[in-house]
Amino acid sequence: MLYCGRPLIIIESPYSGDVRRNTEYARACLLDSLRRGEAPIASHLLHTQVLDDVRPDERELGIEAGLAWYRVADKCVVYGDRGVSGGMIEGIERAKRYGVLVEFRNIEASAAGENP
């Protein structure tokens, strides 16, 4: 489904662990996707603004809400510069279940620690 001519993209990148660095990286991934003419969502950045990722019940709520977007997504883009986490694997599996194309990308600027 194209929205305003832009493909709907779900960004998969790490979040837990080094949250500060992973948040900076996810923001760089969003920017990369936008610059490619895509309409991305990174639910791990959105939902953690209102949910406590340390609380298992709230973490699960956020994950499930993010995974629900696979029903309308055109593509799952996995940014792999920082590795692939368990949550990212869950997203990849959900994408495959819904027949959503999975693409792997690396962005050198983020891997080098630059903050766009």
Strand content: 15-25%
Look at the structure and give the CATH class: Alpha Beta
Number of strands: 5
Number of domains: 1
Following the backbone from N to C, one meets helices and strands in this order, namely: EEHEHHEHEH
InterPro entries: DUF7768
Pfam families: DUF7768
Protein name: DUF7768 domain-containing protein
Domain DUF7768: 7-104
Describe the structure.
This protein is α/β, with parallel strands linked by helices and 116 residues long. The protein has one domain: Rossmann fold (3-Layer(aba) Sandwich). 42% of the residues lie in helices and 19% in strands. The protein contains five helices and five strands, in the order E-E-H-E-H-H-E-H-E-H. This is DUF7768 domain-containing protein. InterPro entries: DUF7768 (IPR056670).
Provide a concise account of the structure shown:
The chain has 116 residues and is α/β, with parallel strands linked by helices. Helix content is 42%, strand content 19%.
